[in-house]
Automatic annotation (TrEMBL):
GO biological process, one term: membrane protein intracellular domain proteolysis
Name of the protein in question: Site-2 protease family protein
Organism field: Natrinema thermotolerans
Membrane-topology descriptor: Multi-pass membrane protein
Location, primary (coarse class): membrane
Stretches of the chain forming a coiled coil according to its record: none
Chain segments annotated as transmembrane: 20-37, 77-102, 130-149, 200-221, 488-510, 522-541, 585-606
GO cellular component terms attached to this protein's record: cytoplasm; endomembrane system; membrane
Domain annotation PDZ: ranges: 225-265
UniProt entry keywords in alphabetical sequence: Hydrolase, Membrane, Protease, Transmembrane, Transmembrane helix
PANTHER family assigned to the protein according to its UniProt record, in alphabetical order: MEMBRANE-BOUND TRANSCRIPTION FACTOR SITE-2 PROTEASE (PTHR13325:SF3), PROTEASE M50 MEMBRANE-BOUND TRANSCRIPTION FACTOR SITE 2 PROTEASE (PTHR13325)
Pfam families assigned to the protein according to its UniProt record, in alphabetical order: PDZ_6, Peptidase_M50
Keyword Protease set for record: yes
CDD domains named among the record's database cross-references: S2P-M50_PDZ_Arch
């Protein structure tokens, strides 16, 4: 669904497109310098070049690999397990990319989605929308660990399968390590069995997946268990030109008291504000300084072309002529009235206006579902004002009432589509994701699709992010967080949840200022906040990067490990068929799969723009 701009100021950041331009300029200069040194013969023998990539080669470490490879039976069993995992992931990656490409072409309206922007394919902090510059140390550490264990796995299995190694090394893009490599001896590699080659290619991703599980096990266990949420309401964003902004409140501050009364957490802030009368209040920040805030009811978010006609930044001054300055005052003034007259100061600074609006839960009526069976098809937003006899002022109130319903229950629903009021008797269906009844609506959060705030702050759900990582805190994802693999899956998605809209902010580790929302405690608390947060960040990004490396290398296309495993697996299958197997048959299969993957990937990135353009 299309929500309007939130209008909140987040912590300072460099815009990705601007930084990407400077990164590309720097790489061109770097590349020119490398070409000059190479042409002048000034690069050492152990340094090679492939475009702007420097490769550093060494023969050291082969003796260590020989010693580590002695328990060959163990390593073969380990890699056989990895082959099975790699094959499952390969098939999954093929299906995923194919479906993602089809979805991208069928929904060209999503072309501008941040999740689908080409720059977000690059794991470069500050360029990628999901990865802030503050996450750089953790990402680089995780990448180094991933490259070492991946290529170390290849090297180890080379020696297990008696494949000689010409050299090993690391590839650098400027100062950034982008890959590691092991160069098997070609003749020795060709003489190895097909099973031996397959195990060797699968060893890298096997190690990456193992490191992922280890890193997240440590993170979810003792490390996050030693982190707690600090007292106060966590300020994640501040609306422009809001009372909070005028008072100097900034993102990453904690509101610890209102008029001298302590604020324990995010949920407590609304209660403290509601319990405080008057348009002027004293807000204590971070348990230290106190700022005076002049309250006014500010629209902090609004759906585009919503039923109220309000926009982000508008200020609501009165309801039916009654002056209000707080959210509590707004709902008190509305009372049981379904339609009210608002006095509004527009965000653009224009003249004060009066507007009649419906106050309730804004929803889209879903086609072929219970509510539409009574209302009839409509493309307009509906505002539900009463549900089963109860007055509804916001979607949050409607959601609470729906939770107490059952499939097959008949309920009375009243509301407005445009300016027309209707009353309907609706029989609820089974809900696809819970035990409650299903009305058949797509919700818009807030009141009539509008979010308002007394002071203009957006709260950061610090306890929920901690809960998603295995700590103390309630989450909206229910049973998923009860399993280890469920936590891993959600942890991998945390850096993109804010951009995709699943959560109000991205989580990129305990960095970028959000450390102020947490404190070290328990088992590791004696080491201090800095040490505990550093350890948590390193583990988070090590697990995140290693899983990405494992999945990426399982893509069944050359020159990735998945492409090599596809070749050896295809050879094994064709050799068992009652036909004369040839290299050409294998090549047809691998080329077809590889080209399909490449085309799917390109369509995923650029297909929506091509279709909509």
């Amino acid at each position: 669904m299309d929500h309007g701009s939130l209008g909140f100021v987040s912590p300072p950041a460099i815009y990705g497109s601007e930084l990407l331009t400077w990164v590309l300029i720097g790489l061109l200069c770097y590349w020119a310098a490398i070409v000059g040194l190479r042409n002048a013969g000034r690069l050492p023998d152990y340094v090679g070049t492939q475009g702007p990539i420097l490769t550093l080669h060494t023969k050291r470490g082969r003796a260590l690999l020989d010693r580590l490879a002695r328990p060959k039976r163990f390593w073969r069993a380990w890699s056989n397990l990895g082959v099975g995992i790699a094959l499952v992931v390969m098939i999954g990656m093929f299906v995923f990319l194919l479906q993602a490409a089809i979805t991208a072409l069928s929904t060209p309206e999503m072309a501008t989605s941040a999740v689908r922007q080409p720059r977000n394919v690059l794991v470069i902090p500050g360029v990628n929308d999901f990865l802030p510059l503050s996450a750089t140390p953790g990402i680089v550490f995780g990448l180094l660990v991933g490259l070492v264990v991946h290529e170390g796995g290849h090297g180890l299995l080379c020696r297990v399968e008696d494949i000689d190694i010409d050299s090993m090394g690391i590839a650098m893009l400027a100062v950034l390590p982008v890959s590691a490599f092991v160069e098997p001896d070609q003749e020795s590699s060709k003489s190895a069995s097909r099973g031996g080659q397959t195990r060797m290619f699968a060893a890298g991703v096997t190690n990456n997946f193992a490191i992922t599980l280890l890193a997240f096990a440590l993170l979810f266990g003792p490390v996050v268990g030693s982190i707690g949420v600090a007292s106060g309401a966590a300020v994640g964003g501040v609306a422009s030109d809001s009372p909070a902004a005028d008072a100097g409140i900034e993102p990453n501050d904690r509101i610890t008291a209102i008029n001298g009364t302590a604020v324990e957490g995010n949920d407590d802030l609304a209660d403290r504000l509601e319990a405080t009368s008057g348009e002027q209040i004293a807000i204590e920040l971070n348990g230290e300084e106190t700022e005076t805030v002049d309250r006014s009811l500010l629209v902090t978010a609004a759906i585009d072309d919503g039923p109220t006609g309000l926009s982000t930044g508008d200020e609501i001054r009165a309801v039916d002529g009654q002056t209000i300055a707080t959210e509590r005052g707004f709902f008190d003034a509305v009372g049981e009235n379904e339609r009210v007259n608002l006095t509004i100061d527009p965000a653009d600074g224009g003249d004060r206006i009066e507007r009649e609006v419906t106050v309730g839960a804004a929803v889209s009526v879903v086609e072929d579902e219970p509510l539409e069976a009574e209302t009839g098809p409509t493309d307009e937003t509906m505002v539900i004002t009463r549900f089963d006899g109860e007055r509804v002022h916001s979607y949050a109130e409607l959601a609470d009432l729906l939770e107490d319903t059952e499939p097959g229950q008949e309920v009375a629903v009243a509301g407005y589509i445009g300016d027309e009021r209707g009353s309907y008797e609706v029989t609820l269906d089974e809900h696809p994701r819970s035990d409650s009844g299903f009305l058949g609506i797509q919700p818009y959060q807030g009141t009539s699709g509008v979010a308002v705030s007394d002071i203009g702050v957006q709260l950061y759900p610090a306890d929920e992010y901690l809960g998603l990582l295995g700590g103390d805190g309630d989450t909206r994802f229910g049973p998923i967080t009860d399993t280890f693999l469920g936590k891993v899956g959600l942890a991998i998605l945390l850096p993109v949840m804010g951009v995709s809209g699943a959560l109000p902010f991205n989580f990129a580790g305990f960095t970028g200022g959000i450390q102020n929302f947490y404190e070290a405690q328990g088992l590791l608390g004696a080491f201090g906040d800095g040490t505990v947060f550093l350890l948590a960040n390193l583990l988070f990004w090590t697990g995140w990067i290693n899983l990405q490396l494992g999945f990426f290398n399982c893509i069944p296309a050359f020159p990735l490990d998945g492409g090599h495993i596809l070749r050896t697996s295809t050879e094994a299958i064709i050799s068992r068929l009652p036909i004369e197997a040839t290299r050409g048959m294998v090549r047809v299969v691998t080329t077809t799969v590889g080209v399909t993957m490449l085309v799917s990937f390109l369509l995923l990135l650029f297909g929506p723009q091509l279709v909509s353009g």
